[in-house]
Write a structure and sequence with these properties.
By secondary structure, this protein is an alpha+beta fold. It has helices at about 20-25, 65-75, and strands spanning about 30-35, 40-45. Helix content is about 20%, strand content about 15%. The model has no long low-confidence stretch (mean pLDDT about 85).
């Protein structure tokens, strides 16, 4: 569902982002991405990504319990 609000720009072309959107989407973050498209701007919150969630998700196809075997497999050029 889209919610449309009309905002006035100040003399420098600035406007205030709605507070309910800031509280919900930005939280403590103070940066956004502004994407310039033909005829409109798209504002997307810049969020921190927790990369530790992906730590054990890579499958290299080898057993990492034997480190020497892993290095041999990983660094061997075929």
């Amino acid at each position: 569902m889209e919610d449309v609000e009309v905002r006035k720009l100040d003399e420098h072309g600035r406007f205030v982002i709605p507070s309910d959107w800031r509280k919900k989407e930005l939280k403590e973050e103070r940066e956004v991405f502004v994407i310039k498209r033909g005829g409109y701007l798209k504002v997307i919150p810049k969020k921190r990504v927790d990369l530790t969630a992906f730590f054990d998700s890579a499958d290299l196809g080898v057993n990492l319990d034997d480190w020497q075997a892993f290095e041999k497999t990983f660094y061997t050029v075929e």
